[in-house]
Design brief:
heterotrimer; A mainly alpha; B mainly alpha; C mainly alpha; A: mainly alpha; 80% helix; 0% strand; globular; B: mainly alpha
Chain lengths: 225, 213, 62
């Protein structure tokens, strides 16, 4: 039963994300203020939330690694952070496109979410520099895990920092689509969010399996050499 | 003197004595921060606001700290003392605390030179700046010591530490600059204190995993 | 299609392309794993054949 998990997630992704995107592009009504271009919201925000979820999952696995002293969790934590980084970059790209449609610029420091993800990108990119720079083994697993934990603590602290800094530099805060959405919009948003989360889960399972296969192959090769 | 804080004090004292004898790190930090301030003067256009120099001061503080932090565990690494320290019976977090205290002392010495130099070259400083610098130094030391221990076991070493540190240093910069230029520095100082508390606890708790084999 | 619409489709396309590129990378990895596994299976087969031959030789001599 365990082996069918990637397939189940892939199926869920197909239904939820496929359906969600179709609804977002064709069924949901236009936003009153922003018009058609507001529809980027239906993938941009789910992608951002999924990135947070991946980093959180990676930190959870990191905590298990340190707590249970089981190196098995290293691969899981690393994969989760990797997927999170991919979604983080996607957040920046889709956010930048949305900034272009809303405010005419490809980047703005007034968008707290964009700035937050830029900081997180820097942080988690450094995670990979760290991993490539330390010899594989228990110590690398421990160090990566500690760093992943620092990451999730950084999220709320950065959030506060960015809010404090925007008061200093930009007293005017530009807002995106507000919380008062029509019911249908909220439904489509939830479907897309569920779809993105399943996409991340699918990617996570597939990548993890691939990495495990790599490890097993290496063992086999050594045994047969 | 036995016990946890005895160990911490012994470790911190060892680092300070070592620095007193070799004079490797602190003089370099002092010279660096003054040189940086001079560079800032040449880097700023003539119509730059006073606020801009305040921002640059904080950049100078952070990069001077990085200079010192890079060397934090180098002595242990090269002398092969690291394994001995770790294998010793006392709590590994004491290593972190002792090292953090000595790093804090070095940073403090650097600021004792940097702040008057800044006041001389650019503009007078207020009490908010001093308090902010103290709080920021604590945060930098707390996080930087742990990251330095990570960097020292890597192949990239001096290259890696700034990469690891700068994202975590952004909140410190925000707090510091905010406290310096804002009308109400209280919020920013409180934020720095929060940063210090949160990351001190996290670093203290996780250090043993960083040095474990 | 107005320029606003164009950006919306650009955003959705970026996501799609990213997923497809990811799929491509995984596909390449899977074929590499398949190749290596085949190689190892071949080596295991050869070794077993070798061992059986050694046993047979022993039996005849002894």
């Amino acid at each position: 039963m365990r082996n069918s998990r990637p397939a189940l997630f892939a199926l869920a992704t197909l239904v939820l994300l496929g359906g969600g995107i179709a609804l977002a592009l064709f069924w949901v009504p236009d936003d009153a203020d922003q018009g058609f271009s507001q529809r980027i919201f239906y993938i941009h925000v789910p992608i951002a939330l999924t990135a947070y979820a991946c980093f959180g999952w990676g930190a959870w696995k990191a905590l298990r690694l340190l707590w249970l002293r089981d190196e098995r969790y290293d691969l899981e934590s690393y994969t989760a952070v990797h997927i999170g980084l991919i979604f983080g970059v996607l957040t920046l790209v889709t956010g930048s496109i949305w900034a272009r449609t809303s405010w005419g610029v490809w980047w703005t420091w007034s968008s707290r979410q964009l700035v937050m993800f830029l900081v997180l990108f820097l942080f988690y990119a450094a995670y990979f520099m760290l991993r490539y720079s330390v010899e594989p083994g228990r110590r690398r697993a421990n160090i990566s895990a500690v760093y992943a934990l620092f990451g999730v603590v950084l999220v709320p602290i950065s959030f506060l920092a960015i809010r404090l800094s925007s008061d200093l530099i930009h007293p005017v805060v530009l807002k995106k689509s507000g919380p008062d959405m029509a019911g249908s919009m909220f439904l489509v948003f939830c479907i897309c969010l569920a779809g993105m989360l399943s996409l991340a889960a699918t990617m996570y399972n597939v990548e993890l399996t691939g990495k495990r296969l790599d490890g097993h192959l290496r063992e086999l090769r050594e045994a047969l050499a | 003197m036995s016990g946890y804080f005895g160990d911490v004090a012994a470790l911190a004292r060892k680092d300070l004595l070592l620095e007193l004898r070799s004079r490797d790190t602190v003089p370099a930090m002092l010279l660096f921060v003054v040189a940086a301030l001079v560079v800032f003067h040449f880097a700023l256009p003539t119509d730059a606001s006073a606020r801009a120099t305040d921002g640059l001061l904080w950049i100078g503080i952070v990069f001077t700290a990085l200079l010192g932090l890079t060397r934090a565990f180098v002595a242990e690494r090269e002398g092969g003392v690291m394994d001995g320290l770790v294998l010793a019976t006392f709590d590994r977090s004491a290593i972190w605390l002792g090292k953090t205290l000595s790093v804090l002392a070095f940073l403090g010495l650097a600021e004792v030179v940097a702040l008057p130099a800044y006041a001389l070259f650019f503009r007078p400083i207020g009490w908010e700046l001093v308090v902010a610098v103290v709080l920021a130094d604590i945060g930098i030391a707390v996080v930087g010591t742990l990251l330095s221990a990570m960097a020292v076991v890597s192949r990239a070493r001096e290259l890696l530490l700034p990469l690891l540190f700068l994202p975590l240093g952004i909140p410190v910069i925000v707090g510091g600059v905010g406290a310096t230029v804002a009308d109400e520095p209280g919020r920013y100082l409180a934020f720095l204190a929060l940063y210090d508390l949160v990351f001190a606890i996290l670093s203290w708790a996780s250090f043993e995993y960083v040095v474990a084999e | 299609m107005s320029s606003g619409d164009r950006y919306v489709f650009a955003a959705y396309t970026v996501v799609l392309v990213t997923v497809l590129v990811y799929l491509l990378i995984i596909a390449l990895k899977v074929s590499r794993l398949d190749r290596e596994l085949g190689e190892l299976a071949r080596r295991a087969r050869e070794r077993r054949a070798q061992e059986e031959q050694d046993e047979r030789e022993q039996a005849t001599v002894g």
